[in-house]
Amino acid sequence: xxxxxxxxxxxxxxxxxxxxxxxxxxxxxxxxxxxxxxxxxxxxxxxxxxxxxxxxxxxxxxxxxxxxxxxxxxxxxxxxxxxxxxxxxxxxxxxxxxxxxxxxxxxxxxxxxxxxxxxxx
Length: 121
Description:
By secondary structure, the chain is mostly helical. Helices cover 62% and strands 0% of the residues. The radius of gyration is 14 Å and the shape is globular.
């Protein structure tokens, strides 16, 4: 995460997550990089099991969305944070990453290969 990454989430991010996966996807596929950064930073807190948030309604779809972000977003910070969330708070399989490994920037391939092989140990 760069020093310029916007970590100041607030009411807008709370409302986005409360609105569901469609609202989260709208932000994450939009053009506003700072909105994406704030939402990803909030999701880090939200997905952390320590805080006991109920993810059951969005868990699978969120995991898929994060994988799509990794293979489609052009912002290194956004991709790094999406990978962090996948590694820290989800379990494989990661079919979207596996099927699109050739579409991923070389710098992220080691981390993605780690995720893909984590369950095979």
